[in-house]
Each structure stands twice: as C-alpha cells, then as structure tokens.
Automatic annotation (TrEMBL):
It comes from the Bacteria. It comes from Terrimonas rubra. Gene3D superfamilies: 3.30.530.20. Belongs to the AHA1 family. InterPro entries: ASHA1/2-like_C, START-like_dom_sf. Residues 13-128 form the Activator of Hsp90 ATPase homologue 1/2-like C-terminal domain. This is SRPBCC domain-containing protein. SUPFAM superfamilies: Bet v1-like. CDD domains: SRPBCC_CalC_Aha1-like. Transmembrane segments: none annotated.
Length: 289
C-alpha cells in the first residue's frame, strides 16, 4: 500500500495575505472551495460540509493548527463511510510579491476500506481541480462574478459526460443558448475548443484541466467571427482568462450531481442564468431517458 501523502506545490502571483484569506475566510471559501457554515478559525473547532449541491459525502474536520499567513492544518474525515481520519495542511511562503503554497494530504490509507472514491489517485485529481479553482479565484478578471448551478440527475456520470461533450448531444442540450449551437475541437487536456452559433460566431477556449467523467475546466480566450478566431483586443481582455467548470459527483443513490461554475459579467448575468438553467434541465431530461 502506498502510504505517502499527496503533496501539491502551487505558485500564485498574489501576496500571502490574499491567499491566506482565500483559504481561511468562509465567505471567500464558498466562492472557490466548499460552503462551510459552522466554521470558526480556531484550533480545536470542528466544521462540516457536503459536496457542492449534494448531501452524500459528509466531510468532518477539526482544526489542528493556525499560524496566520503561514500554516493552516485540520483533520479530514468521512464519518458515513469510514472511521479513519486524514490530515490536510496548507503551508504558505512568500515568493517576492507572490506566494508558494504547499498542500499536504496525509493518512489517506486510513480511508482504504471506504473504496476507490477515497483513494490516493482520486484525491490527487480532486486537489488538482481545487488548485485550479483557487487560481481562478485569485486571478479572476476584475468585475466578473461566478454563476453556480447544481443539478441532480438520475443517471451515471459516464452517460451524462458523453451527452455533454458528444457533438450531437451538445447541440441538443445547449439549444436555449442558440438553436444552432455546436462544439468543435479536442475535448482533452490542453485541447483547443470552439463554441459556435449556427452563424459561425462564438468563443474559443482551452481545456485547462480534464478528468474524464468527473471534471473539466475551460479557460475562455477570445471571440470567433465567421468561424475564425479573433485577436484578443482591449474589450476581450476584460474577460479573457475566465473559467467555466463542470464537475460530476456520484450522489450515492445511483445517480449524479452536476456542479457548474461559470464566470460572467454583470451585463450578461440574467441572460446566462436563464440559458444555463434551461440548458441544464434539458441535459437532465436527456440523461434520464
């Protein structure tokens, strides 16, 4: 058995004080991490939370150590699935005007009896996703907010994933955005993707993180006109680099919970909210057939 901890080292172009606040302030945590209601930043205090949009995976944590702007450490357990306990530690170090952040998740072998969903490989991929979420939160273009959606779907992650990114399936569930919506390009790590209307206008994006049947993050780059990528101009710079993510969690009841986050500016908030709400309902109906 591999008892070595998961260790991820991250580098951010943000001061330690900003990264520390993102890690320990519950209002900021809710933006990129988990929505934790019973949280107090004090050694010995316990806090609890579920996966976004679900109630299958209760997380139970107890704060072990708090050294402001240097270290935050707490236990990490799943009492519904295992009596085992792990330890999560965030260490921060200034690098000029930026921050080196080291995440150490130790004791994962204590959850072995809970199954593959609690394996070292699963946690490694999960923390990579949260690294992107934190990076996105710290780097998000000024003036943008994040729309969040959670949809419970009585279907498997594999079927939902296929419908989302298969060309025919994508054109169906995204009709509320545009009746002729289409997707082209490579849905893979580092792939370039075009999101298009029937007229050939739209947006080009890079696949920043890709874990099949679980997680994908698109980094939106620029506009497309007449099927051609356009240079990033001053207006495009206001949103270029924003992120759109999709995460699928098994809900423990034979179905799945789809969590979607998308950056959007105030002028498009209502339109995007309505279109995503209708599109995700269409995806749910397709997947449950």
């Amino acid at each position: 058995m591999d008892n070595a901890p998961v260790i991820l080292t991250m580098h951010f172009d943000a001061p330690v004080s900003k990264v520390w606040k993102a890690l320990t302030n519950k209002e900021q945590m809710k933006e990129w991490y988990f929505d934790v209601q019973d949280y107090e930043l004090e050694p010995g205090k316990e806090f609890h939370f579920y996966e976004p949009g679900g109630t299958s995976y209760l997380h139970q944590c107890r704060i072990l150590e708090v050294i402001p702007e240097k270290r935050f450490s707490h236990t990490w357990a799943y009492p519904k699935f295992s009596s085992g306990e792990t330890t999560l530690t965030w260490d921060l170090e200034a690098e000029g005007n930026g921050t080196k952040l080291t995440l150490t998740h130790a004791g994962i072998e204590n959850l072995a009896a809970a199954g593959e969903a609690f394996s070292k490989a699963s946690f490694t991929e999960g923390w990579k996703g949260f690294e992107l979420g934190l990076r996105h939160f710290l780097d998000r273009p000024e003036g943008l907010g994040t729309l969040k959606f959670n949809v419970n779907i009585n279907s498997t992650p594999e079927k939902i994933w296929s419908l989302m990114w298969d060309k025919a399936g994508y054109s169906q569930w995204t009709k509320p955005f545009n009746p002729g919506s289409s997707i082209s390009g490579k849905i893979e790590q580092g792939g370039r993707v075009h999101f298009l209307s029937a007229e050939g206008d739209g947006m080009y994006s890079d696949v920043d993180t890709y874990v099949p049947n679980f997680y994908i993050a698109f980094k939106h780059i620029g506009n497309i006109k007449d099927f051609k990528e356009q240079p990033v101009d001053e207006d495009t710079k206001k949103w270029s680099g924003c992120i759109e993510t999709y995460t699928l969690y098994p809900n423990g009841k034979g179905g799945s919970t789809l969590n979607v986050k998308v950056d959007v500016g105030p002028a498009h908030y209502d339109m995007m909210n309505e279109a995503f709400t209708k599109s995700l309902q269409a995806l749910k109906e397709m997947a449950e057939q």
